[in-house]
Each structure stands twice: as C-alpha cells, then as structure tokens.
Amino acid sequence: MAQQPAPPALPVPDEVGRLYDRYTDLGSATLGENLHFGYWDTPDSTASLEEATDRLTDLLTDRLRIGPGSRVLDLGCGTGRPALRIAARTGADVTGISVSHKQIERATAAVAGHDLADRVRFERADAMDLPFAEASFDAVIALESIIHMPDRAHVLRQVARVLRPGGRLVLTDFFERAPIPDTGRPAVERYLREFMMTMVQAEDYPPLLRRAGLWFEEMTDISEPTLRRTFLELSARISRSAQQLAADYGEELVEQFNPADMTDVKEFGHLLVVAVRPVH
C-alpha cells in the first residue's frame, strides 16, 4: 500500500473497542444514532444531519442489490440504526458486528421489541477474524469501519471468505485525494490518531481487492457531498452544546471530538468502493 499520512501506529481492535465504549454516547449526542458522515445530494440541500446520514446508508444499501431473504453482514454496526434501516428497506436479514461492547449493547436494546427483531441481530466480533462460515452472506456493508482496522488486505480476505459467490461488498474509506499540505497535516494526523484510524490512496484499492479474491466494480469520490458539510454541522452542534457536553462526557473527550480544524482540508477524502466475489 502507498505511504499513509497518518502516524505509523496501527489501530488495535481491542483498543478501538474501548475507544467506542467511551465515545458512543458522545457520538450519539452529536451525530445522532448514525455514527457516520452524512450525504447531501446538492450543495444547497436543506436535509438535516440525521436525514443526510440516513441518505449515506441508503446510497450504500442500493449498491448491495439485496432483497427479502438476503443475508447481510454489517461490518462495524455502530449502535444499530443502519442495520435496522437496511432490513426495513430491503427485507433482508442483517447481522451487525462491532468490537465495542457498548455499541452492541445499544444496538441490541434498539432492536428489542422492534418488528424487525427476527431479522436483525448484533454480536461482538472482530472483522480481522470473522466468526462465520464460508459463503455465509449475500452482501457485506462497511460504513466507515475499515478505517479502524490494522490490515485492510486481511479484512478484505475475510470478507471474500464469508461472501457467497456473486455476493457484493460496499464500503466507505478515507483516502488522500492529493498530497496533504503542511497547513492541513497536523489536523489530519490528530484526527486519525485520536480516533485510531488510517487512510489509503485510491489507487490502492483495485490491487487490494484483486489479491483478496474480489472483483473491483466501482470506486467513487464522495468527499464533496459528505465531508465538509458533516464537519461543519458537528462543529456547530458542539459549539452550541459545549458546556453541557463537557459536563456529561468530560472536557478531554469533548476536545477530542472537535471537527472544526478538518472543515477546509480538501485533500482529506471519502471513498465509496464496490466489489464482488466472482462466480467461478
């Protein structure tokens, strides 16, 4: 893989899990129950952050090409809202996994008593060692979760193993759109370091997928409709509620969750990738 602009330390799954055990409540208080970026169809869209995050879930879901009876793995399920939305929109059965105990508790509580409870389930598991049999799923979705994993190539091989032939993978990842200038590098490196993430070059993905046994189908830069608007929305919410958030979650944690410095780093990118396990 090409050199990454992040510090050399790689995420450790158990440490990422502990981070999200601490971060989940704060993330929900700012982002909402979708712990990922929003997608605004047009620059002047009036969609709320909650609507925009649902829209990104839908954008990926539509590329899964699933329907009633399909089995879907949500790789890094957060607190469960995307899995519930996928099941409701498509009729599919969804299994969500996370390395965070708290996220799995929240997701399980969200589905309890829901009319989708027989089709949506959550369990704590590590994407580096998926506890599922070969060809268990018709599709895998990974909404901004592969950024936390120490070895993308290994994760992609795991995904290829659990996908049935013809099954589809849709994911989002962070990538370097252009060389990050010195003015923006400290903000990017801090963001990646504090949230235990790494990023790639876009050109890394076709060979990564090919070596994992997957066929590359699509790669789309979705930076413009997602990143800056989300960072601005989050910055405004944190500013409005800084005192209460600090009281509820601690000043140190709130300071970590400060997106203001990232709003104008245009070289920091958001990539949508689609791949297929071939039918031999």
UniProtKB/TrEMBL annotation:
GO biological process, one term: methylation
Sorted UniProt keywords: Methyltransferase, S-adenosyl-L-methionine, Transferase
SUPFAM superfamilies: S-adenosyl-L-methionine-dependent methyltransferases (SSF53335)
Domain Polyketide synthase-like methyltransferase residues, every copy: 26-277
Keyword Methyltransferase listed: yes
Gene3D superfamilies linked: Vaccinia Virus protein VP39 (3.40.50.150)
Domain of life: Bacteria
Keyword hit for Transferase: yes
Pfam families linked: Methyltransf_11 (PF08241)
Record GO terms (molecular function): methyltransferase activity
Protein name, per record: 27-O-demethylrifamycin SV methyltransferase
UniProt source species: Streptomyces thermoalcalitolerans
